[in-house]
Amino acid sequence: MADHVPVTKAVVPAAGLGTRFLPATKATPKEMLPIVDKPAIQYVVEEAVSAGLDDILLITGRGKRPIEDHFDRAYELEEALRAKEDPERLGSVRESAELADVHYVRQGEPKGLGHAVYCARRHVGDEPFAVLLGDDLIDERDALLQRMLEVRETYGGSVVALMEVEPEQVSLYGCAAIEPTDEDDVVRVTDLVEKPVPGEAPSRWIIIGRYVCDPAVFDVLEKTPPGRGGEIQLTDALLTLAKRDRSEGGPVHGVLFRGRRYDTGNKLDYLRTVVQFAADRPELADEFLPWLREFVAKHDEAGR
């Protein structure tokens, strides 16, 4: 029974076209855009590894070769840095190649998140697995994924990460109807609605880009018809599992996340994330923050 199988594999969908960041993403995958000096996707892989998941499957598509190169060895670059006696940069270059056992499969057609997850079936097999979306970065000080794995161990089934947002934001996300459990940060999910009509959302708790899925989700996804936007939605499959008991791959629980989440899905949020990460870097903050304060003050003064 999958209930007693430990989670060791993580699936990271990375096949999107990144149209919100054109023209930067015309030849560079959106996932490779840097957050200070490290591509966004590396933070996601590091999060999975820190939670004990060292078998990573990236779901890619055409034009994503730079992602594969990033997690591979770069012998010529390493040799050049070694010749320059630059151990710090040499270590940073090697780090990404030594993080985890990274695999790749192509999605082929952009049929939605549910289809991207289904592409992992052969690699994952009959084991539970985590799904991490690259648009959401979780602060390394907040062990969200680890907590989700603990909830999966306790309750079985699947687990989603939920975050409370303002009512006007709910329609931008998948939203959950929830029931309390005996644990303050854990709820039972009774309904899931993808991008609900404003005013009709079942709660203010939205699904953010972290999931722990029972392998039963694959059979459900295989039979799930395209939903909103003509895409196969992972939320539709999870809703089916939410109505099942533990012996059939259900139920679905949610972890109420009140920590630090950074969005990189659009230009404005991406810029905010870069600034926040830079401000948290001690070697940058001492010079960056005074400059930022001065820049904002001059900008405000000029606008008066």
TrEMBL record:
Q: What is a single molecular function from GO for this protein?
A: nucleotidyltransferase activity
Give the reactions, separated by semicolons, that this protein catalyses.
alpha-D-glucose 1-phosphate + UTP + H(+) = UDP-alpha-D-glucose + diphosphate
Keywords from the named record: Nucleotidyltransferase, Transferase
Protein name according to UniProt: UTP--glucose-1-phosphate uridylyltransferase
**Which Pfam families does UniProt cross-reference here?**
NTP_transferase (PF00483)
Record carries keyword RNA-binding: no
Instruction: Give the family per the record.
Output: Belongs to the UDPGP type 2 family.
Transcription found in the keyword field? no
The superkingdom listed in its UniProt entry is Bacteria
Q: Which organism is it from?
A: Actinoallomurus spadix
Gene3D superfamilies, A to Z: Spore Coat Polysaccharide Biosynthesis Protein SpsA, Chain A
Give the EC number(s) under which this enzyme is classified.
2.7.7.9
